[in-house]
């Protein structure tokens, strides 16, 4: 399977053999044996390399999960019976990753040196899919993201703000009515992003329509375009906390109606959560609580007990 995934990525058996540190005929034989075992062709062989067939592309996704599970098992089995160890993958939202990733990694390495931590970043819909398929062990999602295969615990509620360049004149103490933003150009995430869903629901409630000029699913691009004067956006203030603090951007709460998001901790309900995963999750929750109570999470309100 490792040979198959490497050839699938590289598209060349000779180069894959170099990366795997085995001879080229051995890689070719492993691919051939895999195809014989499955009874289907996985690659189209051509003058310019190996191209995946439709069946090969389908197998890549399953193969990656197989290798991930083996990696998890290997890391867990290498840990001692008394120490907590293993591989844990945590999914973070882009707007929270900068604040949470470093403290989480530091605390885990200090408290559980036997744990190998992976931090995956993605939007809520992507993280939900990864959680369902087992690519992440736990994730932060929005309350709006629902699935029968996950259980959630609300942790933080925060308002969404209208964000603009420094000369936009927005002030934290002066909420902006949604109707006052009609006619202004906006840069928002593409549907069905969680924030886009919240904004669209608020617009329907207020019977208004915003002028959407650019859609992007990259937070960095949203920020860059707003800084460049291409329009306004709507985000939780934590997403651009440093820019707000330094005066590069200005922001104000949205009202009429208020718009808020709830961040939840999501865990799978269809598979067991080991001690090593629970240990990392407990640290993540504690770091989030500490950030809110210390005022490091702008406008965040702690919901958990």
UniProtKB/TrEMBL annotation:
Family: Belongs to the LysR transcriptional regulatory family.
Name of the molecule in the record: LysR family transcriptional regulator
InterPro entries in alphabetical order: LysR_HTH_N (IPR000847), LysR_subst-bd (IPR005119), WH-like_DNA-bd_sf (IPR036388), WH_DNA-bd_sf (IPR036390)
Keyword set, alphabetical order: Activator, DNA-binding, Transcription, Transcription regulation
Record-annotated HTH lysR-type domain positions: 1-53
Organism: Candidimonas humi
Pfam short name (any one): HTH_1
SUPFAM superfamilies hit by this protein: Periplasmic binding protein-like II (SSF53850), Winged helix' DNA-binding domain (SSF46785)
